[in-house]
Amino acid sequence: MLPSNPAVYFEIPVKDIQRAEQFYSHVFGFSFEKEMIDGYEMALFPFEEKNSGITGALAKGDVYKPTKNGVIIYLKTADIDETLSKVQDRGGKTLYPKKINEKYGFAVAEFEDSEGNRIALHETLKND
C-alpha cells in the first residue's frame, strides 16, 4: 500500500438531517447528495476526486449521537470571520474564536453546529 494521509472519510452525527443540510448549505454553500447507506440517512458532502482532502456525510440514525466531545473535524474556509458570522445566522455558536498561527500561516476557530457538534475551521493565510 502506498503511503498517504490516513484520514479518508468522516461522518457528522445529526438529529435532524434537513436542518443540518440547511445549516451547512448556508454556512459553506455546500449542496448535498442524499443516500440511504446501511439503513441510515446520509447527506453526502461534495467531493472531487482530483482535489486534495477528504469528504464525508451528515449522518442520521440510532448510532449517530451529536456531541461537542470527541473527534474534531476541520473544514476549510477562505474567511473564518465570514463563516462564523454565517454560523451565528443559523443559530450556531462560536466555541473557540479565531486564532492566527503566523509561524505556520493559518488560522483556526471552532463552532457548535445546528445539531450540537463541535466543528473546527481552518483558513490558510494569504502571503502579502
UniProtKB/TrEMBL annotation:
Residues 6-124 form the VOC domain. Signal peptide: none annotated. It comes from the Bacteria. Pfam families: Glyoxalase. This is VOC family protein. The lineage of its organism: Bacteria, Pseudomonadati, Bacteroidota, Flavobacteriia, Flavobacteriales.
